[in-house]
Structure formats: structure tokens, C-alpha cells
């Protein structure tokens, strides 16, 4: 999984379909558990489905980033099938979404600038 440190405070992660998605999410969880707090933008452009295990991992990431570290987590470039999973489960109200990675990065950066 390509993980880019977009800046000192923003990490961009690109996910892929399973089995890589599970490994990618585990890597992110491990990485964020050992690192200073960062905002996280996750690129879903290459993800065509989510299973319940991956949803649980996304919720754990949300807890690490948003709840514990008081940082921002944005899910970007989600296709209609995966978006349907978020809608059906009600998770569309729990996560923040943008149409593209560029918009996700801009959203995180704007919030960071406003907090400074």
C-alpha cells in the first residue's frame, strides 16, 4: 500500500481490494499507533467492495485518529458500490467523505490552517 507523508501532519493512504485491503488497514493501524497524531486521507479509488472486517478496521482507525488524537480522517474517491455499504450501515454519518483525493487533502489542510 502506498503511504505518503503528505506533510508532517497529513498522511495519504491508497487502499486496494482484498486481500490487500485488510493488510493495508492493519499497516495503517500499526503505523498510527506508534506515530504522533496526524490527519489521515484514505484513497478508495481502487476498492470495489468492503467486508465487515474492513469496516471494523476503519472504525478502529477512526477511533485512533478522530476520537483519541482529535485529528481529521477523510475517505476519498469511493465508488457507488462501496458508498452503498456506508449508506446501508449508517456509517455515512460517522465518516467524512470527499469525491477525490485532492479534495480530501484540501479539506484537511484548510481545517489545519483554520486551527492555527
Write structural notes for this entry.
With 116 residues, the protein is of the alpha/beta class. The chain has a single domain, classed as STAS domain (Transcription Regulator spoIIAA, 2-Layer Sandwich). The protein contains four helices and five strands; from the N terminus they run ββαβαβαβα.
What attributes does this structure have?
single chain, 4 helices, alpha/beta, Transcription Regulator spoIIAA, 116 residues
Would you spell out the secondary-structure blueprint of this structure?
Blueprint: E1 3-5, E2 10-16, H1 20-33, E3 39-46, H2 52-68, E4 73-76, H3 80-89, E5 96-98, H4 101-115
Helix pairs in contact: 1-2
Quote the average pLDDT.
Answer: 91
Query: What is the spatial order of strands in the main beta sheet?
Result: 1-2-3-4-5
Number of helices: 4
Strand content: 15-25%
Helix and strand pattern? EEHEHEHEH
In the CATH scheme, what's the topology name?
Answer: Transcription Regulator spoIIAA
Report low-confidence residues grouped into runs of 5 or more.
none
Please identify which CATH superfamily we are dealing with. Answer: STAS domain
Q: Based on Cα principal axes, name the global outline.
A: globular
Could you say which structural class the secondary elements and strand pairing correspond to?
alpha/beta
E-strand count: 5
Helix fraction bin = 40-55%
CATH class: Alpha Beta
The biggest sheet, with number of strands, parallel, antiparallel or mixed sense and barrel status, is: 5 strands, mixed
| CATH architectural grouping | 2-Layer Sandwich
